[in-house]
Design brief:
Layout (H helix, E strand, L loop, with lengths): L4 H20 L3 E7 H5 L7 E8 L6 H24 L5 E7 L1 H6 L3 H8 L1 E5 L3 H16 L2 E5 L2 E5 L13
Parallel strand pairs: 2-3
Antiparallel strand pairs: 1-2, 1-4, 5-6
Helix pairs in contact: 1-3, 5-6
């Protein structure tokens, strides 16, 4: 038999990074993988969850995904080869501008635990995650296992009508 599942996913992620660098060029700020692939425990049908921070992205999810299409097209043969090995990977990119990444999104909570940053100009995203981890420690936040998944308890103790920021 060929490569193991994890090795196939690692090869696919590396190809995505190479193609993202080609497509976005100097505009690429960060390329990270998260989720089960980021944790190193993909299954045969895992998505490849990617965070891609790019300068000067167009507004709107659809237009941003259009900028990612050349990456998908370049990796399509690799995805087909993986399917021949019964690994049905698909790409699931989250495309943000640097300004949006600074503001943050709820997904970053989990990324403090499982993101692997593969390209990060000047430590941009590593610094953002480090700041978020520090803030979570200050709040006493906990990631609580629940039925094979988890949820976040962001502040302990928390009082009704209390406001706080991450």
């Amino acid at each position: 038999m060929g490569e193991g599942i994890r090795e196939v996913y690692e090869r696919l992620v590396h190809r995505c990074l190479v193609e993202a660098r080609r497509v976005y060029g100097e505009r690429l700020v960060t390329f990270a993988v998260f989720g089960s692939v980021g944790r190193g425990v993909p299954g045969p049908q895992s998505d490849i969850d990617l965070l891609i921070v790019v300068e000067d992205l167009p507004p709107g999810r659809r237009r941003r995904l259009e900028t990612f299409e050349p990456v998908e097209q370049a990796v399509e043969a690799d995805l087909r080869a993986a399917r021949a090995e019964r690994i049905h990977a698909s790409l699931s990119p989250v495309l943000l501008t640097p300004q949006e990444a600074i503001r943050g999104i709820p997904l970053f909570l989990d990324m403090t635990e499982d993101a692997r940053i593969l390209y990060d100009r000047a430590g941009f995203f590593a610094n953002r995650l480090s700041e978020l981890r520090q803030r979570l420690r200050e709040l006493g936040a906990q990631r609580i296992p629940y039925g094979g998944a988890w949820y976040w308890r962001l502040k302990e103790p928390f009082h009704p009508r209390e406001e706080f920021t991450l």
